[in-house]
């Protein structure tokens, strides 16, 4: 299979994987208002390899890999790539999960999470706990590569308690991954301290000396498209990953932003609500949808009262009624 990473021209942008956020519904909503020359890669929510490798556990996690037919149509039309992100600590399960994904889904690559700082995950020896565990990390990457012909990338951080960017990134580069996304914080920093983009610059410089063909993507505190371009120019990163920035503006990747128009915000919110309801029906908690309301309902007269009504809603129907009442 062709490694799509080699076809991307920098600087390119990636929507970060986020728990209970970047499901097929939200990815499609963002994609629908993005310019394909700006947004080039999407990533699923992270999926447990332990869950994928057990028939009973699989039922609890496969929704994270779901891709709506409408999202697939948009992806193919725009030429945007989609990665499946997986996490765990057992190389054999990474092999099995990679094989399962390749046999049952249509993804453009597999991304390994070596950066999530959550205590419950780290205590399992996974994600950020893998930083500095060179032998195990290499075994996981190799197992994932052997499981399928899909290109493999890694998303990680600069260290656990202190930056070890030089040694850690050098090791990952030696594992011959296609791309490395570096969240410019240590695990201990969580998201409480500002991202240190000088660490991304260090990573890009090391890449240039070891293997210029591997893509480096920087991540952390990118608030707008222009800032991302400047950070790419400063650090030498090929790409920029955007996480929380999308919550401030769903039109983050649009060349013709429409976020200041109230009607545009409400239209996109309605699209999100209806798509969420038709996609998940009763299989996912409606309250998950509520975390998105502030993305659309802010910065205009009456926004606070509308948002309050939306937060009180218990169904998509009630939410749509609240919006209709606001419009009338």
From TrEMBL:
Keywords: Flavoprotein, FMN, NADP, Nucleotide-binding, Oxidoreductase, RNA-binding, tRNA processing, tRNA-binding. Signal peptide: none annotated. Its cofactor is FMN. One of its GO terms (molecular function) is tRNA dihydrouridine synthase activity. It catalyses: a 5,6-dihydrouridine in tRNA + NAD(+) = a uridine in tRNA + NADH + H(+); a 5,6-dihydrouridine in tRNA + NADP(+) = a uridine in tRNA + NADPH + H(+). The active site is at 116 (proton donor). Residues 15-321 form the DUS-like FMN-binding domain. The keyword tRNA-binding applies. Its EC number is 1.3.1.-. It comes from the Bacteria. FMN binds at residues 85, 155, 183, 243-244. Belongs to the dus family. Catalyzes the synthesis of 5,6-dihydrouridine (D), a modified base found in the D-loop of most tRNAs, via the reduction of the C5-C6 double bond in target uridines. This is tRNA-dihydrouridine synthase.
């Amino acid at each position: 299979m062709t490694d799509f990473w080699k076809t991307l021209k920098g600087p390119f942008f990636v929507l970060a994987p986020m728990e209970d956020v970047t499901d097929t519904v939200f990815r499609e909503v963002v994609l629908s208002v993005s310019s394909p020359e700006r947004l080039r890669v999407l990533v699923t929510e992270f999926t447990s390899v332990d869950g994928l490798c057990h028939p009973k556990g699989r039922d609890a996690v496969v929704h994270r890999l779901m891709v709506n037919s409408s999202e697939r149509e948009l992806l193919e039309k725009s030429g945007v790539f989609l990665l499946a992100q997986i996490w765990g600590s057992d190389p054999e399960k990474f092999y099995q999960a990679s094989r399962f994904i390749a046999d049952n889904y249509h993804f453009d690559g597999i991304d390994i999470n070596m950066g999530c700082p959550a205590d419950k995950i780290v205590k399992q020896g996974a994600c950020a706990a893998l930083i500095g565990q060179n032998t195990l990390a290499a075994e996981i990457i190799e197992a994932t590569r052997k499981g399928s012909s899909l290109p493999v990338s890694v998303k990680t951080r600069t260290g656990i308690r202190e930056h070890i960017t030089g040694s850690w990134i050098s090791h990952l580069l030696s594992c011959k991954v296609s791309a490395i996304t570096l969240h410019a914080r240590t695990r201990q920093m969580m998201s409480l301290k500002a991202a240190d983009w000088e660490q991304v610059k260090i990573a890009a410089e090391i890449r240039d000396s070891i293997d210029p063909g591997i893509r480096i993507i920087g991540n952390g505190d990118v608030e707008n498209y222009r800032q991302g371009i400047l950070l790419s120019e400063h650090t030498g990163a090929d790409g920029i990953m955007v996480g929380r920035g999308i919550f401030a503006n769903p039109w983050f990747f649009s060349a013709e932003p429409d976020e200041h128009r109230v009607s545009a915000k409400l239209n996109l919110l309605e699209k999100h609500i209806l798509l969420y309801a038709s996609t998940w029906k009763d299989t996912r908690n409606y309250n998950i949808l509520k975390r998105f309301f502030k993305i659309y309902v802010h910065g205009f007269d009456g926004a606070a009262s509308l948002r309050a009504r939306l937060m009180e809603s218990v169904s998509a129907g009630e939410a749509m009624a609240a919006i209709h009442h606001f419009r009338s």
